């Protein structure tokens, strides 16, 4: 039960849906009627809480959470967090959660890039470097360090960081979609072979030979008729 209470406290403290640490939008927009199917921030936070508790209690991998400090949130520009979509807030939260337990002494041996619950790939890269007991975290946009250990046991570790960790995927332009491959030109049908005209064969010799043979036969027949009436 103590582990669950620490997760709930951590999420209540740092989930962006329910706690923006005093941030307010730059200008108060006119309130629109709530959408019937819209998911409330509290419901979204509860979903994240349930997912983390489920993973922690049903797997042996453990969880590591980087929880930004109060100063980390308050140093953000006013209205910044409120300008994010719920989808971006969810990804930002998951970017602070590692799907494995990492003790403070194990940061020296982790392989970069470190996988977070936001996924893998160059746009959600998180790298860890160490020097003695100093642990530095870089994302391509944020460079900060672990300032303290909030809680740790054999499966859950919560470390305080001095800055909110910004992934490239949220805070840099998305790469353009790849252009569709050009359609391959269909091969043209080959023209049917046309036999080239050939010169007419000279058959006059053969015709003459046939005539000659017939004449010989005729002559023989006449001679035979005379000789053998």
Would you write up a description of this structure?
- The chain is of the alpha+beta class.
- The protein is 32% helix and 15% strand.
- The chain contains six helices and six strands.
- The chain has a six-stranded mixed sheet with strand order 2-1-6-5-4-3.
- Strand 5 and strand 6 (156-161) form a beta hairpin.
- Helix 1 (2-14) packs antiparallel against helix 2 (41-58).
- It starts with a helix and ends with a helix.
- It comes from Salix purpurea (Purple osier willow).
- This is FASCICLIN-LIKE ARABINOGALACTAN PROTEIN.
- Residues 176-197 are annotated as: Disordered.
- Residues 183-192 have a biased composition (Basic and acidic residues).
| SSE pattern | HHEHHEEEEEHH
- Taking all residues together, what is the mean pLDDT? 74
* Low-confidence region ranges: 18-22, 24-38, 207-212, 222-228
The count of strands amounts to: 6
Membrane topology: Lipid-anchor; GPI-anchor
Family: Belongs to the fasciclin-like AGP family.
Protein name: FASCICLIN-LIKE ARABINOGALACTAN PROTEIN
Organism: Salix purpurea
Concise account of the structure shown:
The protein is of the alpha+beta class and 229 residues long. It contains 6 helices and 6 strands.
Topology:
Layout: H1 2-14, H2 41-58, E1 63-68, H3 70-74, H4 86-95, E2 97-98, E3 127-131, E4 134-138, E5 143-152, E6 156-161, H5 168-171, H6 204-227
Parallel strand pairs: 1-6
Antiparallel strand pairs: 1-2, 3-4, 4-5, 5-6
Helix pairs in contact: 1-2
Which terms summarize this structure?
six-stranded mixed beta sheet, disordered C terminus, single chain, 6 helices, alpha+beta, 229 residues
């Amino acid at each position: 039960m103590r582990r669950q209470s620490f997760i709930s406290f951590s999420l209540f403290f740092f989930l962006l849906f329910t706690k923006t640490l005093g941030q307010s939008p730059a200008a108060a927009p006119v309130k629109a009627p709530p959408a019937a199917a819209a998911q409330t921030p509290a419901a979204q936070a509860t979903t994240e809480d349930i997912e983390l508790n489920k993973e922690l209690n049903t797997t042996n991998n453990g969880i590591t959470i980087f929880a930004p400090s109060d100063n980390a949130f308050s140093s953000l520009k006013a209205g910044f967090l409120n300008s994010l979509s719920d989808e971006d807030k969810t990804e930002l939260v998951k970017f602070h959660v590692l799907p494995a337990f990492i003790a403070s002494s194990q940061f020296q041996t982790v392989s970069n890039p470190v996988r977070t619950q936001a996924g893998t790939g160059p746009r959600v890269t998180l790298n860890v470097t160490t020097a003695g007991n100093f642990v530095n975290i870089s994302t391509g946009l944020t460079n900060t360090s672990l300032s303290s250990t909030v809680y740790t046991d054999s499966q859950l570790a919560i470390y305080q960081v001095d800055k909110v960790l910004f992934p490239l995927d949220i805070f840099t332009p998305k790469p353009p979609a790849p252009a569709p491959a050009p359609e391959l030109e269909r091969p043209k049908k080959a023209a049917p072979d046309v036999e080239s005209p050939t010169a007419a064969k000279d058959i006059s010799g053969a015709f003459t030979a046939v005539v000659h043979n017939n004449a010989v036969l005729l002559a023989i027949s006449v001679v035979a008729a005379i000789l053998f009436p």
